[in-house]
DNA sequence: ATCCCGAGGG
DNA sequence: CCCTCTGGAT
């Protein structure tokens, strides 16, 4: 099966069964999503959502967060992965927002990646979810699922390479949704260690499944 | 032991 | 390219 056909069937299935996928991070404005996504590295969304209410209550905007010390912020995010790094990044991020962006979240990937703690993945999420731009953020789920199914060549061994390969085949209008479909599929079905092939709706197009199904049946 | 919507630094 | 950061869940 060609990649184009895999894409078409993958997109068809989820268009029908998950027509309006959205992030599971809880937020109410661009600033909050930027903070939440920055916190989400190597951490579950559930854990982030347990942490952000108190954080947003104490620091409701970039102005208040910019005046905080990293030690103060650390207190609020200590149950998150890498709390020291993230606390420093958040304060630095807020200070740059105030200094260079009038306290607002930038609307280009180019500007977003200038912020401390914001790399290409986070910038792509903000550009896509907040600013409705057709950017594909490649996180651990998107990377694993794309390669396992065979949506991208096995030679795509970096997040950037996977991003470019996905962008070649996904219609612009579906990039935002496809990002969430790949994440949700990875989070709940195509698990990293033991993918749940027995309940997977897209085994028909899956390269990994076609190679391993004999072992799975026995 | 391995993984979770990574980023920065060497 | 590598390494480190670093808590919670399974």
From TrEMBL:
GO terms for molecular function: 4 iron, 4 sulfur cluster binding; class I DNA-(apurinic or apyrimidinic site) endonuclease activity; DNA binding; DNA N-glycosylase activity; metal ion binding. Pfam families: EndIII_4Fe-2S, HHH, HhH-GPD. [4Fe-4S] cluster binds at residues 190, 197, 200, 206. Its cofactor is [4Fe-4S] cluster. SUPFAM superfamilies: DNA-glycosylase. Keywords: 4Fe-4S, DNA damage, DNA repair, DNA-binding, Endonuclease, Glycosidase, Hydrolase, Iron, Iron-sulfur, Lyase, Metal-binding, Nuclease. It catalyses: 2'-deoxyribonucleotide-(2'-deoxyribose 5'-phosphate)-2'-deoxyribonucleotide-DNA = a 3'-end 2'-deoxyribonucleotide-(2,3-dehydro-2,3-deoxyribose 5'-phosphate)-DNA + a 5'-end 5'-phospho-2'-deoxyribonucleoside-DNA + H(+). DNA repair enzyme that has both DNA N-glycosylase activity and AP-lyase activity. The DNA N-glycosylase activity releases various damaged pyrimidines from DNA by cleaving the N-glycosidic bond, leaving an AP (apurinic/apyrimidinic) site. The AP-lyase activity cleaves the phosphodiester bond 3' to the AP site by a beta-elimination, leaving a 3'-terminal unsaturated sugar and a product with a terminal 5'-phosphate. This is Endonuclease III. It comes from Cytophaga hutchinsonii (strain ATCC 33406 / DSM 1761 / CIP 103989 / NBRC 15051 / NCIMB 9469 / D465). The lineage of its organism: Bacteria, Pseudomonadati, Bacteroidota, Cytophagia, Cytophagales.
């Amino acid at each position: 099966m060609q990649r184009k056909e895999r894409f078409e069937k993958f997109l068809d299935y989820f268009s029908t069964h998950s027509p309006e996928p959205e992030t599971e991070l809880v937020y109410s404005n661009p600033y909050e999503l930027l903070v939440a996504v920055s916190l989400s590295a190597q951490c579950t969304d559930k854990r982030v959502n347990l942490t952000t209410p108190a954080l947003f209550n104490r620091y409701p905007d970039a102005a208040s967060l910019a005046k905080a010390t990293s030690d103060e912020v650390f207190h609020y995010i200590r149950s998150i992965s890498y709390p020291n790094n993230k606390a420093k990044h958040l304060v630095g991020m807020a200070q740059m927002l105030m200094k260079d962006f009038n306290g607002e979240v930038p609307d280009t990937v180019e500007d977003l990646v200038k912020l401390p703690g914001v790399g290409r993945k986070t910038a792509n999420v903000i550009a896509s979810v907040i600013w409705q731009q057709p950017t594909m953020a490649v996180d651990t789920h998107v990377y694993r699922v794309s390669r396992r199914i065979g949506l991208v060549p096995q030679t795509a061994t970096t997040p950037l390479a996977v991003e470019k390969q996905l962008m070649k085949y996904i219609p612009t209008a579906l990039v935002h949704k496809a990002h969430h479909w790949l994440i949700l599929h990875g989070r709940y079905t195509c698990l990293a260690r033991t993918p749940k092939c027995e309940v997977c709706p897209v085994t028909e197009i899956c390269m990994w499944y076609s190679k391993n199904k004999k072992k799975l049946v026995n």
